[in-house]
Design goal:
This protein has helices at about 15-25, 55-60, 75-85, 100, 105-110, 140-145, 165-190, 200-205, 210-215, 250-260, 265-270, 275-280, 280-295, 300-305, 320-325, 325-330, 370-375, 380-390; strands at about 10, 30-35, 50, 55, 65-70, 90-95, 120-125, 195-200, 235-240, 245, 310-315, 335, 345. Helix content is about 40%, strand content about 15%.
């Protein structure tokens, strides 16, 4: 049994934030129904690359879910959907504020009919405040949250976003956390509630260190490449054949590193004697120790550093990460297969449980794949078949992808 067996989730979503939340709940055993709006469905279905005509990005975000597709403009389709909402435990959406109200399923519109429902909203900036009406995009949220000001090579260089859509993924994770907390509260009170988070807040959350520095000192932290604002040496160094991250973050590790490099005198250098000294003179510190790392390969340095207990690791590309033995041992890459049997790999669930292991039980649904079986829970076969025949539910014509 999964941790969330018996929990029904309706996920009216597109792109990434809400699908990431639904993905985690589905991995935990919840029955997550991916609800797509006809006629197009989730636009990510049109994102390359494809495996046997199936979008790999869509498959990544929507495995373990069933698929329902409805025309939100159709009154009969929406009446059936509202019946499904009344039977659900959780509803997740990540449309622009006001969209759900337009469809007649805003929180205030349905909360009295669905008093146990956990209504989860992921927007660009949250449901309150002066920016509540704005749409949400990861790039914009990274800039507004301060993340882009602390990401990149350093002063005078262009702003750089985190390579991954970190505010989307984090907002989905925060929403999942909110759902779990609200489900626990409901088990105590019997009442559902609104869970409200945003890409903006997800980005701000990643500035804990830099915000602490600013709010205590008035200093405005900036980009430092791979370096850390409070610890040194704690960053990537170029080696003979690549890059290696070094985590000599405290005094003992720094002294040990200087000895390993054959440069014990650096530990006594007034510029590098304490942690604060090393941060103040970071440029000089990097210049002093980089030549040592450039003399050997990444693997050679890792072996030596690991042997003496200095935290270190190579900078892997995505291919190297997905084939790393630790990645595989932790089940973080799993092959769910395409509908035609070709290899189609996805990232596994990032949390392990001793008593309720997660599993990938099914691949991502085709658009509206399970519409009939889902709608039969709230309507007769004749009503469902008529709705599908009218085009207000079910799947649109499949598009061939190369």
């Amino acid at each position: 049994m999964g941790l969330l067996d018996g929990i029904r989730v309706l996920e009216m979503s597109h792109v990434m934030a809400a699908p990431a939340c639904g993905l985690m709940l589905a991995d935990l055993g919840a029955d997550v129904i991916k609800v797509e709006r006809l006629p197009e469905g989730d636009g990510v279905r049109n994102s390359a690359p494809y495996v046997d005509g199936e979008s790999a990005p869509f498959a990544m975000m929507n495995r373990n879910k069933r698929g329902l597709a409805i025309d939100t403009r159709d009154p009969k389709a929406m009446a059936m959907f509202k019946q499904l909402l009344m039977k659900a435990d959780v509803f997740i959406e990540n449309y622009r504020q006001g969209a759900m109200e337009h469809f007649g399923i805003g929180y205030e519109q349905i909360k009295n009919d669905c008093p146990r429902l956990i209504y989860t909203s992921i927007t660009g900036y949250g449901r309150t405040g002066p920016y509540a009406e704005r749409g949400g995009f990861d790039l914009v949220a990274q800039g507004m949250s301060g993340l882009m000001s602390i990401t990149g090579e350093g002063p005078g260089r262009p702003p750089v976003k985190v390579g991954a859509p970190v505010t989307d993924i984090t907002a989905g994770s925060l929403a999942c956390m909110g759902v779990l907390g609200a489900l626990y509260a409901r088990s105590q009170t019997g009442k559902g509630q609104l869970v409200d988070t945003s890409l903006f807040e997800a980005g701000i959350m990643h500035t804990y260190w830099q915000s602490a520095i600013h709010m205590a000192s008035g200093e405005i932290p900036g980009a430092m490449g791979s370096a850390h604002p409070l610890m040194a040496p704690y960053q990537a160094f170029k080696t003979k054949d690549g890059w290696i991250n070094i985590g000599a973050a405290n005094q003992g590790l720094w002294t040990k590193l200087a000895g390993l490099l054959g440069a014990a005198h650096l530990a006594d250098d007034p510029r590098f004697k304490t942690g604060n000294d090393r941060i103040k003179n970071l440029g000089a510190l990097v210049d002093a120790i980089t030549p040592f790392f450039e003399k050997k390969t990444t693997q050679a340095w890792f072996d030596e550093l690991d042997a003496v207990g200095i935290p270190a690791g190579p900078v892997l590309d995505i291919q190297q990460m997905t084939t790393d033995p630790q990645t595989l041992a932790r089940g973080m890459v799993q092959d769910i297969g395409s509908s035609k049997g070709s290899s189609l790999r996805v990232i596994g669930h990032p949390v392990k449980y001793s008593e309720a292991p997660t599993s990938i039980r099914r691949g991502a649904p085709s658009c509206g794949e399970h519409s009939r079986e889902i709608l039969l829970e709230v309507a007769s076969a004749a009503e469902v078949d008529a709705l599908i025949a009218s085009g207000a539910a079910g799947a649109p014509q499949a598009k061939a992808k190369a």
